Amino acid sequence: MTLASDLPAAAPETDELALLLRDPEIRSALSVLVANAPTLAAFTTMGNQLLARGPEIMDNVNGLVQQARGPLSEQSGGARLTSAVGALADIAPLAQPLAARSEVITSFLDSQILQPEIVDIVGRLGEAAMQADQVTRGKSMEVGGVFALLKALKDPRVQETLAFVVEFAQHFGASQTAQSGEVPARIPSSKSTS
């Protein structure tokens, strides 16, 4: 049995590494390094590969700089670049107001208004409005009396459009009521007769 008094006296440590390992901050930092060793190894590998391709990357960057410094001719896209820079200058004042409204813009972009089917309907509505405007704008037009209007109501195209308007009004009204939280009055649903 060995007594503590039989052990040689501890010599003061002169090893710098042993002294550093006694510091709790150093031990904590080393444990973080060891825990992240795979990530550090991946970054080192990527850095080495990036450095190996350095000359190729620099050649590409130099080529782009030379193209940008070169003459801006019609063939090199100079006119497009000039107009793009001009457009950016025109758009720049809009950046801050648009950034302030980013929630509204995001909400609009996420809404159903941009679904292809809805865009198609709105496009057809706009086309029909434009055609009607071209036919009637600046011209003295007579629709006729009440009986002429009643006769026009029998036209299948007018019937289809009116059915669309009635269905739209009912669906939109139901949507409005649902948003307001009111209890809607019972509305009879229209039935298709085609």
Keywords:
single chain, 194 residues, mainly alpha, 9 helices
Derived from helix and strand composition plus strand pairing, the structural class reads: mainly alpha
Principal-axis shape equals elongated
The residue ranges in which pLDDT falls below 50 over 5 or more consecutive positions are none
Average pLDDT, rounded to a whole number, is 77
Q: Termini separation (Å)?
A: 109 Å
Q: What is the CA-based Rg, rounded?
A: 38 Å
- Percent of residues in beta strands: under 5%
The major β-sheet equals: none
In total, how many beta strands? 0
- Percent helix range: 55-70%
Order of helices and strands: HHHHHHHHH
Fold and architecture overview:
The chain is mainly α and 194 residues long. Among the domains are: 32 residues, no CATH class; 55 residues, no CATH class; 36 residues. Helix content is 70%, strand content 0%. It contains 9 helices and no strands. The longest helix is centred in the last third of the chain and has 25 residues. It starts with 15 loop residues before the first helix and ends in a 14-residue tail after the last helix.
